[in-house]
């Protein structure tokens, strides 16, 4: 086959053939990474945890969203954390959480599958800028500290839980409602 025939053969490849090749390479790379994780990383987890630590389940994932500034935001979730260069497995999973800011309130949606409603504990921090979610059942434990975009009124909280999804609505504290200093008259 001449160089010209080879060129024409490559040139006739369709637009989607290029994507097929890219996806095939991505699939091969993912399979290679999974095989590597199953062999090396699992042994590393066992060595780091020691013989007394219960293994599994491992829950790890991430999601990518676009923030309000147009930049991508990567959020990790699960119970596998890297602390000071070592992998740690926590009994508490970090759930996926979405925070929606509206004009008068903030809505927090958290995924807590497999937990009974009465096992969920919610707490607003002293500075009123953080929601702490704790949930524990016989098989699952969740913990997440959610940074809030504004100060909230904890007394206004309304929480619902259905089909493994927790929704919390908190009213914002307006700047005019924040505690102001008191004026002292001089007599």
Can you describe what's shown?
With 187 residues, this protein is α+β, with helices and mostly antiparallel strands. It folds into 2 domains: 1-55; 92-172, Immunoglobulin-like. The protein contains 2 helices and 10 strands. The strands form 2 sheets. A 6-stranded mixed β-sheet has the order 1-2-3-8-7-6, covered by helices on one side. A hairpin with a 2-residue loop joins strand 9 and strand 10. The chain starts with a helix and ends in a 15-residue tail after the last strand. This is Heat shock protein Hsp20. Belongs to the small heat shock protein (HSP20) family.
Mean pLDDT, all residues: 77
Q: Secondary-structure element order, as H and E? A: HHEEEEEEEEEE
- What is the CATH C level class of the largest domain, in words? Mainly Beta
Strand content: 35-45%
Report the uncertain regions.
none
What does the oligomeric state look like here? single chain
Helical region count? 2
- Strand line-up across the major sheet: 1-2-3-8-7-6
Taken together, the total number of domains comes to 2
Concise account of the structure shown:
InterPro entries: A-crystallin/Hsp20_dom, CS_dom, HSP20-like_chaperone, HSP21-like. Strands 1-2-3-8-7-6 form a six-stranded mixed sheet, covered by helices on one side. Strands 4-5-10-9 form a four-stranded antiparallel sheet, with no helix packed on it.
Task: Describe the protein's topology.
Layout: H1 3-11, H2 15-49, E1 60-66, E2 72-83, E3 86-94, E4 97-101, E5 105-111, E6 120-124, E7 130-136, E8 141-147, E9 152-162, E10 165-172
Parallel strand pairs: 3-8
Antiparallel strand pairs: 1-2, 2-3, 4-5, 5-10, 6-7, 7-8, 9-10
């Amino acid at each position: 086959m001449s160089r010209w025939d080879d060129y024409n053969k490559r040139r006739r490849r369709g637009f989607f053939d290029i994507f097929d090749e890219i996806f095939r390479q991505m699939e091969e790379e993912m399979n290679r990474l999974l095989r590597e994780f199953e062999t090396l990383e699992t042994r590393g987890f066992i060595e780091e945890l020691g013989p007394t630590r219960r293994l599994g389940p491992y829950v790890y994932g991430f999601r990518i969203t676009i923030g309000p500034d147009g930049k991508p935001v990567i959020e990790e979730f699960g119970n596998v954390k890297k602390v000071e260069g070592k992998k740690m497995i926590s009994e508490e999973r970090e759930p996926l959480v979405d925070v929606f800011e509206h004009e008068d309130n903030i809505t927090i949606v958290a995924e807590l599958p497999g937990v009974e409603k009465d096992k969920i504990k919610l707490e607003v921090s002293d500075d009123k800028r953080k929601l702490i979610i704790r949930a524990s059942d016989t098989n699952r434990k969740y913990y997440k500290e959610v940074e809030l975009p504004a100060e909230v009124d904890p007394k206004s909280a309304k929480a619902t839980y259905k089909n493994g999804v927790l929704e919390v609505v908190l009213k914002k504290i307006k700047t005019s409602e924040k505690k102001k200093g008191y004026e002292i008259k001089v007599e």
